[in-house]
Design the sequence.
C-alpha cells in the first residue's frame, strides 16, 4: 500500500467558495470562502492528501457564461488557495448543461477515467467532498466515501475533516418503541476529550435517513443535560 495516493476530490462552488443564489460565480465580487475551508485543507494536506478539483460549470463558454468571466474567477480562486500552499494536482471541469447529456458531468465519473488509470489511488482513504447529492453519487460511482457540506447548521468542514483524518471510534445504541426509533451514537474519542471537563457529548441521529441530528451535552456529575 506504500505507493498508493490519498486523493481528496473537492467540488468548488458551495464547497470551497459559496455558491450564489443564481448558481454562477461569474464575478470576483461573488467569491467568498466557505467557513473553515483553509484549516480543513491544511489538516488534509498534513495527513497526506492530494487535492483534485471537480466542478460542474453549467454552460461555460456559452453566452450565458462566457469563458473570460469563469477564468477571471477561477484564476483568482486558484491563486488565493495557492498563496496558502493549497494546490490542485488536477482540475476537472464539466462545461455542459444537464440536458447536453455529456459524460463528464458529476455524478458521472467520465472526467476522471484517465486519472484513475494513471494514479494508484488509495481507495480506502480517498474521499469526495461536495455540497450536493450529486457529489455523493459521484463518490459512489467511483467507489470511495463521499462527504457532504451542509448549507446551514449541518456538517461543516471541521466535522468532515474530523471524520476523514481522525476516524473517531463510534458506538451505536438503538432503541425502538412503537412510535419511533431513536439511535444514539456516542463518539468515544470526543467523549474522552470532554470527560476532563466533566461532560459527555452524544451525537443523536433520528429517522430512517439519519438526517436529524442533535448534540446532547450531559454533565457527568449531575447527569443532567447542559443547556
Ligand atoms: Mg457544489
Ligand atoms: Zn460535461
Sequence:
Amino acid at each position: 500500500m506504500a505507493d498508493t495516493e490519498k486523493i481528496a476530490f473537492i467540488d468548488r462552488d458551495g464547497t470551497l467558495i459559496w455558491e450564489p443564489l443564481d448558481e454562477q460565480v461569474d464575478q470576483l465580487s461573488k467569491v467568498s470562502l466557505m467557513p473553515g475551508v483553509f484549516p480543513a485543507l491544511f489538516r488534509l494536506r498534513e495527513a497526506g492528501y492530494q487535492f483534485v478539483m471537480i466542478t460542474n460549470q453549467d454552460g461555460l463558454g456559452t453566452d450565458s457564461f462566457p469563458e473570460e468571466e469563469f477564468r477571471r474567477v477561477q484564476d483568482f480562486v486558484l491563486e488565493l488557495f495557492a498563496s496558502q500552499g493549497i494546490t490542485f494536482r488536477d482540475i476537472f471541469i464539466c462545461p455542459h448543461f444537464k440536458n447536453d447529456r455529456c459524460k463528464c458531468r458529476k455524478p458521472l465519473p467520465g472526467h476522471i477515467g484517465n486519472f484513475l488509470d494513471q494514479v494508484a489511488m488509495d481507495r480506502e482513504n480517498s474521499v469526495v467532498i461536495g455540497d450536493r447529492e450529486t457529489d455523493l453519487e459521484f463518490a459512489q460511482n467511483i467507489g470511495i466515501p463521499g462527504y457532504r457540506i451542509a448549507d446551514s447548521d449541518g456538517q461543516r468542514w471541521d466535522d468532515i475533516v474530523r471524520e476523514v483524518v481522525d476516524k473517531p471510534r463510534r458506538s451505536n445504541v438503538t432503541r425502538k418503541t412503537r412510535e419511533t426509533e431513536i439511535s444514539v451514537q456516542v463518539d468515544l474519542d470526543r467523549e474522552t476529550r470532554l470527560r476532563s471537563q466533566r461532560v459527555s457529548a452524544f451525537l443523536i441521529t433520528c429517522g430512517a435517513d439519519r438526517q436529524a441530528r442533535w448534540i446532547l451535552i450531559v454533565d457527568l456529575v449531575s447527569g443532567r443535560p447542559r443547556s
About this structure: Helices lie at 37-46, 67-83, 113-118, 133-142, 157-166, 188-195. The longest strand covers residues 49-56. Confidence is low (pLDDT under 50) at residues 191-197. The chain has two domains: 6-166, 170-219.
